[in-house]
Amino acid sequence: MKSAVLVFPGINRERDMARALKLISGQEPAMVWHAETALPAGTDLVVVPGGFSYGDYLRCGAIAARAPIMDAVRDYASKGGLVLGVCNGFQILCESGLLPGVLMRNAGLKFICHDVHLRVERSDTPFTRGYNAGQVIRVPVAHGEGNYEADEETIRRLEGEGRVLYRYCSPEGVVDERHNINGAAQSIAGIVNNGGNVLGMMPHPENHVEDIMGCTDGRGLFAGLVQHLEKAA
Amino acid sequence: MKARVTVTLKSGILDPQGKAIEGALKSLGVDGVASVRQGKVFDIELAGSDRAKAEAALKDAADRLLANTVIENYAIEMKS
After folding, report:
1. Is A181 near chain B, with CB under 8 Å?
2. Rounded distance, CA B5 to CA B74, Å?
3. Closest among A104, A106, A167 to A133, alpha carbons compared
């Protein structure tokens, strides 16, 4: 799997992401600076990592979403290319119009930094095929603006089309308001675009991929992508 | 030429920051505060003197960057 990790000023999770990608796919990802206008030829996966691009100035992800490289990412995504955005990356994808909706301030106003449980809603997508539908995984979150909101029509469409792939839940997989850490609509932690090839999620699967991290539940996401691409090849 | 662009949250969009400010004002004992919604103000200086062109540029700026029109409204005010 040839992956490309985008690098914006203020991003700080790009090396975690690169490490996880190398570990699971066996291939070193290309690090692509935001001022570039093209992605490396033959890119199988574009990753927009987490962090605080441009210090979260204006709105989280707003300035990064208008960077030159994002035109290339839009073009790549429109042709069906796989794009994964994590945390600030999810915010950037929403701001760039690649995903609908917006990440608002957490309902409780606090920055949340701890492990959460996610329910994998379906397993028949490139981003979830490493898991079983209904499986509960444990991954960390670290965000102040992760409260996913969209207009009613958009939420209805996301739900109707099965585009919510990850939801905040209890360790047993129960989705309720108590485990909806940031107040997101429908406990949404991760969604895909209408083509199913662009995923945005607030939690950090790349931080649970090695035993030394205390948990390896995040591996499935990357392993699933590798499998998907091998099958497609 | 100078202009001010004001960006506010659309009505119906939850504003936890506004709520926190509202709570703080109430705990300060400021009388008669019913509710608070917070927003952003951009003071922008424009080169040139073509007013229509300036307004078009500001609208472009607001649509493409200053406001996220999914959740925010904006107002443009020419100051001179």
Report:
1. no
2. 7
3. A167
pLDDT at site A92? 98
CA distances from A213 to A20, A85, B67 (A): 12, 21, 39
Kindly report the pTM of this predicted structure: 0.94
Distance CA A166, CA A162 (A): 11
Q: Which residue of A has its CA nearest to B13?
A: A149
Burial A64-102 (b: 16+ CB within 10 A, else e): bbbbebbebbeebbeeebbbbbbbbbbbbbbbbebbbbb
Q: Give the angle A51-A57-A62 at the CA atoms, nearest 5°.
A: 75
Whole-number Å distance between alpha carbons of A128 and A98: 19
pLDDT digits (tens, 9 = 90+) for A123-156: 999 999 999 999 999 999 999 999 999 999 999 9
Give the ipTM of the model, two decimals please. Answer: 0.85
Nearest to A95 among B14, B20, B68 (CB): B68
